């Protein structure tokens, strides 16, 4: 916990220094939700094909999903998701002059979640 998944379009994969972003994201999560740094785990998944709007642009697209143990307020989750979007924009900039599409979702882990 937290379990972090980052889905990246091809354009985002070339524009985003994934390791640097993940390290900054881990620090942000620790500071926001009061967890341990070593508990943060991030997986990057390529989204091989993405289509935005009418398909006229190949704008970078990134979605970050963060799963936390239950008990955080909706306000805290909203604050974290906005901070993640802001951090993404800092790290992506404008790739090739095209504004990226970024999003973040904070959810609670199911009661069946186990780790070792």
UniProtKB/TrEMBL annotation:
The UniProt record lists the keyword Glycosyltransferase: no
Keywords: Isomerase
GO molecular function, one term: isomerase activity
Recorded coiled-coil stretches: none
Keyword Isomerase: yes
InterPro entries assigned: 5-COMe_2-OHmuconate_Isoase (IPR004220), Tautomerase/MIF_sf (IPR014347)
Protein name: Isomerase
Species, as recorded: Streptomyces zhihengii
